[in-house]
C-alpha cells in the first residue's frame, strides 16, 4: 500500500501571487504542442508552415480552457456554478472536462482551418498527435491535487489519498490515465502520423484510442460524487461521453481508407 505524497498544489508563491502546479501542467502541454507542431510542420504533407504553428496553439489554448471549463460545468457540476458563478473562473482549483475541451478545440480548428484555407480535417489530423502530452500533464496535475482517485483496491500499488478521508487504498487512476491517455496515446499517434495518411484517419485514430482508454479507466475510477453511476451501478458520465468518440473514431478511419481506395 502506498501513500499519496501530498505535494503542495501551489508550485510558487510570491506574496499574494500563487502559481499552481495544475496551471503549470497546462503550460507544459501547450509548450509541448508548439514544439511538436513545429516538427510536424516540416513534413512535406503538412497543411501549415512553421510560422503558423504559434497562432494555431494560441487558438487551441483558448478552446481547451474555455471549452474544458464550460464542459465541466454543463456535464458534471452545473449546481456548483449556480451557487457560486465566480467558481467558473477559478480554473486553478481543478474542474476541467476533456470532452468540453475537445469541443472547444474543434471550434478553434474549424475557425483556423477556414482562415488558412487548409480546412477542418487537415488541421485536425495535424493537431491530434500534439494533444496527448497535454492530456498526460493534466492528469499529473490531478494527481498532485489529490483528486479524481479510483475505487478501493488491495493491489500492491493501491494508494491512500488523504483527501478521501477513509484511509482506504485506492487505484491511482490519475496515473493510469497518464500512462494511457498521455504516453500510450502519444506513441500510437506519433508513430501512425509519421507517414502521410488518408485525410481523417489520424483524427479517427485519436478519437477511437482516447475513447477506449477513457472508457476502460472509468471502471476503476470513482465517478463524481454528485453524479454517481448513471446506470447498472457501473456506467459513468465519462463512459457515456466516450462511447460516441469510439463510434465516431472507428467510422472516420473506415471512411478515410474507403475514400483512398475509391
Highlighted features:
two-stranded antiparallel ribbon; single chain; 262 residues; three-stranded mixed sheet; 6% strand; mainly alpha
Characterise the protein shown here:
With about 260 residues, this protein is mainly alpha-helical. About 60% of the residues lie in helices and about 5% in strands. The strands form 2 sheets. Strands 1-4-5 form a 3-stranded mixed sheet, with no helix packed on it. The chain has a two-stranded antiparallel ribbon with strand order 2-3. A hairpin with an 8-residue loop joins strand 4 (about 160) and strand 5 (about 170). The longest helix has 25 residues, at about 235-260. The protein is globular, with a radius of gyration of 19 Å.
* β-strand number: 5
Mean pLDDT: 90
N→C terminal distance: 56 Å
Spatial extent as radius of gyration: 19 Å
Unreliably modeled segments: none
**SSE order:** EEEHHHHHHEEHHH
Strand order of the largest sheet: 1-4-5
Summarize the structure.
Helices cover 59% and strands 6% of the residues. Helix 6 runs antiparallel to helix 7 (173-192) and helix 8 (201-217) packs antiparallel against helix 9.
Please write out the topology.
Layout: E1 2-3, E2 10-14, E3 17-20, H1 21-41, H2 53-75, H3 78-83, H4 98-116, H5 120-127, H6 131-145, E4 159-160, E5 169-170, H7 173-192, H8 201-217, H9 237-261
Parallel strand pairs: 1-4
Antiparallel strand pairs: 2-3, 4-5
Helix pairs in contact: 1-2, 1-6, 2-4, 4-5, 6-7, 7-8, 8-9
